[in-house]
Amino acid sequence: MKGSESQLRGGPVQLPDGRCLWFRPIEPADAERLRRFHRRLSPESQRMRFFTPLRELSPRMAKQFTNVDFETRGAVVLCHAGENEIRGVGRFESNGDGSMEVAFVLEDELQGKGLGKALLHLLATYLQSRGVTRLTAMVLPENSAMLAVFRSCEFPVHIVNRDGVHFITIDMAEACNRPSLIAC
After folding, report:
1. Which residues share a beta bridge with 158?
2. Which pLDDT value is given to residue 180?
C-alpha cells in the first residue's frame, strides 16, 4: 500500500445500534464486489448517486472506479467488520483546479446513521493533509440527507442551484473542530 493511501485507513466505526463497520481503501480486486453492492441499492439510491436509476455498473465502470491512484482519484469502502462485501463508498476526484469533487453512496439499510458524515470527515481529513483546501459536490435538490451531511461538515459551505442540481463548494482553508469517528 502506498504511504499516502495508508492514511485513508479509516478503521472501525460504531453504529448507534452497536454494530461495528470498517473503512478501508478501495482496491482493484473490489470491482466485482462494487458491482454486487450497486445491484443491492434501491433505484432511488442509484438515482441520488448517479442522477439516474443506473441498474447495473458495467465491468468497465467498476474497473474505472476501483483502479485509483489516491492522488487525483481515490475511494474508501465501508464493510461490516470481518467481511469484505462493500456496504458504502466515499470517493474523490480532481477537478483539475486544485479542488476535489467528492461523492458518497451507502447501502439503503445503512443510510441515516451518520456514515455519510463519517465518510466526508475521512476524505476531508485525508485531502486536507495533502494540501487540498476546497471540495465540491453535485447533489439533487431532493437529496435532503446528503445536503444535510454537507451543511453539517463544520466548514463554510456554499450551495448554488443551477439547472436543477445543487453545486456545493466546501472551503477547508480554515481549521475547524470536526467530530472524530467513534471507534469500536
Report:
1. 169
2. 43
Q: What is the DSSP string of 36-66?
A: HHHHHS-HHHHHHHHSS------HHHHHHHH
In a domain, 85, yes or no: yes
pLDDT of residue 181: 44
CATH number at residue 113: 3.40.630.30
* Residue 55: φ, ψ to 5°: -70, -25
Residue 179 lies in a domain: no
Residues 9, 24 contacting (CB under 8 angstroms)? yes
The cell for 161 is 442551484
Rounded Cα distance between 6 and 182, Å, is 19
pLDDT averaged over 10-residue windows placed end to end, the chain, 184 residues: 52 81 94 96 92 88 95 94 92 96 95 90 91 95 93 90 94 62 40
Q: Which phi and psi angles does 89 have, rounded to 5°?
A: -140, 135
Angle between helices 31-40 and 59-66 (to 10 degrees): 110
> What per-residue confidence (pLDDT) applies to 150?
93
Could you tell me whether strands 73-80 and 157-162 are parallel, antiparallel, or unpaired per DSSP bridges?
unpaired
Range of the domain at 155: 3-171
Total residues belonging to the chain: 184
